[in-house]
Design brief:
This protein has helices at residues 12-15, 32-42, 55-64, and strands spanning 47-50, 69-74, 113-120. The chain has 140 residues and is an alpha/beta fold. It has one domain.
Length: 140
Amino acid sequence: MPWATTLSPATETDWVTEYCDLILSIKVVNSLDEAIDHINIYGSRHTEAIVTDDAQTAQRFIAQVNSAGVFHNCSTRFADGFRYGFGAEVGISTQKLPPRGPVGLEGLVTYKYQLTGDGHVSSTYSGEQAKPFTHRDLEG
């Protein structure tokens, strides 16, 4: 296994580092409480997910994890402005109330999206709604 030589135990630094690379840090926890606490301290506040057959555990996770999207048994790739029907994303907020300046009632409302699946994954965009994506380095 050539990849096995690149494995090392995760450290505190791993939980506060955004790698912008194909790096995965894994924490093994002893309880749901420990998992929720860890996520609420170090999570993205954008999208978090749980995989479990226990509906009560999933409901508690969804209720107690502080993120804009909390998913049960489905891919976090569903967390996409276009998939939510908002059109192209122009930004991502992990704050609960980001408005500034004069704010009316609509600006004080925040949402928490909850999805439940059975191993569902998001499909690649296709058909009329598909837009070509260009992924390239912007440096140089």
